[in-house]
Specification:
The structure holds three protein chains of three kinds. Chain A has helices at 60-68, 90-94, 112-117, 132-144, 160-173, 190-205, 217-223, 241-244, 247-254; strands at residues 20-31, 34-45, 49-53, 75-80, 83-84, 97-100, 178-182, 209-213, 226-231, 234-240, 258-262, 269-273. Chain A is α/β, with parallel strands linked by helices. Chain A folds into two domains: 11-96 and 176-273, P-loop containing nucleotide triphosphate hydrolases (Rossmann fold, 3-Layer(aba) Sandwich); 108-174, no CATH class. Chain A is globular and about 55 Å long. The relative contact order of chain A is 0.16. Chain C is an all-alpha fold. Chain C has 15 helices and no strands. The longest helix of chain C is centred in the first third of the chain and has 36 residues, at 77-112. Classes of the chains: A alpha/beta, B alpha/beta, C mainly alpha. At the A-C interface, helix 2, strand 6 and helix 4 of A face helix 10 and helix 11 of C.
Chain lengths: 276, 337, 359
Amino acid sequence: MTTTNPSADIVDALSAPGQDSLSASRLTFTREGKLVIDGVDVSLPVGSFGAVIGPNGAGKSTLLQLLVGTLPADSGAVLFDGDDLLAMKRRDRARLVALSEQHGDGDTGLLVTDVVLLGRTPHIPRWASEGPADRRVVADALTAVGMTEFSNRPFDTLSGGERQRVQLARALAQEPRLLLLDEPTNHLDVRAQLSLLSLVRAQTAAGLTALAALHDLNIAAAYADSVIVLKAGAVVAAGPAASVLTGDLISDVYGVRADVLEHPRTGRPLIAFDTT
Amino acid sequence: MTSRSPFTARRILPRRVLAAAGLLTGLAALTGCTAAPVPEPSDSREPTASAYPLTIDNCGTELTIEKAPERVLTIKSTSTEMMLALGLEDRLIGHAFPDGPIPDELGGEDVPVISDKVPGQEAVLTLEPDFIFAGWESNFSADGAGDRDSLAELGVNTYVSPAACQSAEKPAELRFEDVFDQIAEVGSIFGADEEATALIAEQRTALGELTAAAGTTALWYSSGSDTPFVGAGAGAPQMIMDAIGIENIAAGVNESWTSFNWEAVVDANPDVIILVESDWGTAEKKIGVLRSNPATAKLDAVVNERFITVPFAATEAGVRNVEAAQIIAEQLEALGL
Amino acid sequence: MTATMTTRPAEAASARRERRRVPTVVLVLVLSGILLLSIVLSVTLGPADIRPAEVWGSLLGHLGFDPTLLGGDVLSPLRDGIIWELRMPRILTAAAVGAGLALSGTVMQAITRNPLADPYLLGLSSGASLGAVAVILLSVGVLLPVAAFAGAIVALLATLLLAGAAGALTPTRTVLAGLAVSSFLGALTSLVIFWSATGDTYREILSWLLGSLSGARWPAVAIALGALLLVGIPLMLTGRTLDAFAFGDNAASALGVGVNSTRWLLLSATALLTGAMVSVSGSIGFVGLILPHAVRLVAGQRNRVVLPLSALAGAIFLIWIDTGARTLFDPRELPVGILTAVVGAPVFALLLLKARRIR
């Protein structure tokens, strides 16, 4: 993996220059001859909550996979706190970056604690058993997502929202400094969506950097400090939600008309789609 | 079965009547009704031709023989040897699937071997046989020489050694009388009753002259290495051992041959081991197996090399069983038993 | 993450959905005890009528003790041979083969995420069979275990090459390639049998194809136990890595597991283990398929628990099934593979009905 100098090109994507924790530059990825990610830059300050939005097939999930290293980027660089993530050993990287995915079709047979304990995989020596410290981290992670009393329940019996919280706990048990969430609110009811993202925001408030691929523009607008808008694998806009999310952009990216209002209580953008 | 004695019937009734009752007679000949005296050579015989048409039940298949078959194909050694022993070499158009060389005294050098294995249907039909005589029932199958019904439709009669019947009644326990019955039956099919009668008488005399080796225990080791395949309590091996008075350690299994167990062999520790010699499994190979297995290497018979070798073809029911008994008796004597 | 750990008692509503687990240590100890007891008991069973005191005496004698210690009997060399040369090696081989197959099955099922996966999935069994049948029939001048093992490895390589040539090595593609290789090698085996089997060799081949432990002597013990120690024990410790695959390759990779390297390392290890087992016992079916499922029903799905328990359960299972093969039709022998199938198929059906998880 070649590391190109990222500093020159990413400036326009930054929302708070100088304090970046995550900065990715000129990421490209080709799948079956098709350019899926086309020179994407990402930049997030420490402790911020970023959202990747864009229509289906824009490359949101792929971008997250490139950042966490589960897919190999064709070119580009990913720095975290100055460390080259892509050059790092997989196991070291897993102690820094965690990915929480949606798993609707649970077929694991594992208990909730077992699932969360998986997050300790990069921390426990390969041939050893987990120790008391690991069990403490697991318990803390379950407490953090409010799932302690579900510890001994089979994961497959949980509701969608509960599963998503357990997946979040699993990612937290990795004790990461960067948390990536791939469409964490899909298929969840409103209450579950809000409670999950509140949990993530509580974590960012404590210093974790988070980047979530999101479908729902209003959810992104309500929670994210900054927004990266992808269209056909390329960034079309990036920056604070209030400045990025405009009627023109939504019309350009999603092909629907919308008015962007101001939320009466939070002051954040509120998108009203034109359904006439 | 009410008729215990087909040969008695044959002596009293005219041949035509006998032929009409052929089914009954045939069945009787096959089901172990063996106590009957065999007709004496001096018995008043009618001309061979009068025996036809002859109806026989053979392994559940009914045969009608209109006249003595002339183009005969044999499969496996027992059938070939029986034909030769009855002086019917001129009827043979070929033989297939031999288990070993034919003994010189039986002749048959000029009979072509048409296949080392069971020949296929087309190979069989090209030879235009009118009769196929097989040693095993399984030789008649669609992927072998053809199934019996289809061959019958083509006008080819088929015959299986009754002792090898699997699908229909076979003798509960093979005895020499059953073998003699079969010789007589084959004799009548080919109009060679006199030869059959003479052969039976000769074999009966030879059997009577055998010296008994009472009290000797033996393992009849036919094949196999991890799991030995041995002569059990109901077939030709048992019959041969009985003729010499040998006690078979596998007599308890009511089969002709059986998969046995080395542990049971070691436990029985037989006085002698009878090794069956065939092209695919030499006696030497079997001795090697016995010696390489640390448990069987300690058997008295192995330690003292008390091995007896019999040719495979003589160990299936047929004209060479008496010879097998003689061979074993001779070798036992040589071993001092 | 500063909250302190306080495990609150579960609410009444959720309590009934909770699963209480028997501690792993207890299960391991119990199964180890049963395994030991099985070895001791089964060595006293067999066609030959040998008293436990004689068995005890024989074992003591061979382990370098006074045979008469603690009431042991001194045996004749022949009866001693039955115990020490026939029964002991056979029972130990059964235990090692059972453990190895169950372990391989567990790993295969986890790594392909396919509950129907078994140790013979990648053409291993058909390759080994071809090697063995060739030796039996064509009198090729190599030892049977060597040929069987070589056949298994060649089959594995063919499967991997085929799967690789068809594109990326995905589990599905690998399994399908294994199927193709199996069918082809199976056909070759049939051809060799059809072409060269004479007389009674059919029986010997059949017994090998069905799987049999009747030929197990001390060299077989060395092969099977050696493979179990060298390959099986390390495999047993890969449970945590296998667990990381619970949510798929991506999740495993994000947890720091090298997905491809792990998969091929583990597949090769199971191939090696299975190849060694097949070389001494023929292909014994169902052990690698049902034992892992049975263990999961009792102990849950965590592979680091399922692996050692499957190995123990497989050892116990095969010891008793083979004892059945030796004694049920005494003094006749039954190929043990027939019994594992007779017992295994209904058990598998039962598991299928019980574990709704298998979709």
